[in-house]
């Protein structure tokens, strides 16, 4: 990142004094490139349970690309549709303002600038192996109030219907959410919450991955 601050619409990218690159949306911290273990684990933990090859994945959003990079490192991944609502986030990666132009140039990657809800809804029923949602800080810590709709039963059902049998939906969250787990359990099997330890500003904390699998064998 050459200059120390870029701003477009609701998105701000800035270089902090500690050297980290930070993404803010709506004036709220979204992520940085120093503590990215949970973003990578979002991909790795879903891939660990995936069955077969030629995996088709939908991920929202792009952010700084750590989840996408972890997905593409697995040769079983045949196609990734990335939904990112902020055009600037995609543009900054394409033009090299942030690393990741190689990800967007990967022939397996299709980038859609738009709401992940619309992008998931457009997928054919029973066509996706993994849906990874990391568009906000979780149901109880929204950066964007519109994203409340990402965590409600109607959209979780839409996700479940797009999954192939045994396909997985995995949701990143700043905190565990029993309510979200309950909603996941109405449409998916094997619902679990994975605690991901992180160190934030010198303190031991945790992020969470909440996930479940589409039932059935076909
Ligand atoms: C926490 S970041 C994603 C981090 C990403 N997992 C990574 O590894 O860098 C959240 C991203 O989701 C985008 N976003 C927010 N709401 C969205 C929505 N409804 N649909 C698609 N993208 C959204 C934000 O602009 C931001 O780029």
UniProtKB/TrEMBL annotation:
It comes from the Bacteria. The keyword rRNA processing does not apply. GO terms for biological process: polyamine biosynthetic process. The keyword Amino-acid biosynthesis does not apply. Signal peptide: none annotated. Keywords: Polyamine biosynthesis. SUPFAM superfamilies: S-adenosyl-L-methionine-dependent methyltransferases. InterPro entries: SAM-dependent_MTases_sf. This is Spermine/spermidine synthase. It comes from Mumia flava.
């Amino acid at each position: 990142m050459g200059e120390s601050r870029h701003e477009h619409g609701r998105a701000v990218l800035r270089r902090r004094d500690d050297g980290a690159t930070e993404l803010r949306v709506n004036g709220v911290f979204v992520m940085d490139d120093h503590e990215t273990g949970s973003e990578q684990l979002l991909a790795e933990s879903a891939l660990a349970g995936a069955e077969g090859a030629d995996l088709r994945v939908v991920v929202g959003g792009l952010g700084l690309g750590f989840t996408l990079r972890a997905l593409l490192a697995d040769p079983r991944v045949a196609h990734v549709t990335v939904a990112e609502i902020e055009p600037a986030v995609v543009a900054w990666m394409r033009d090299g303002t942030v690393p990741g132009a190689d990800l967007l140039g990967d022939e397996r990657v299709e980038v859609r600038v738009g709401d992940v809800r619309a992008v998931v809804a457009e997928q054919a029923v029973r066509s996706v192996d993994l849906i990874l949602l990391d568009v906000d800080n979780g149901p109880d810590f929204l950066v964007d109030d519109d994203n409340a709709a990402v965590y409600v039963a109607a959209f979780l059902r839409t996700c479940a219907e797009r999954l192939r049998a045994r396909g997985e939906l995995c949701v990143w969250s700043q905190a565990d959410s029993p309510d979200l787990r309950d909603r996941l359990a109405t449409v998916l099997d094997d619902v679990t919450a994975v605690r991901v330890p992180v160190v934030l500003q010198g303190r031991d904390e945790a992020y969470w991955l909440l996930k479940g699998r589409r039932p059935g064998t076909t």
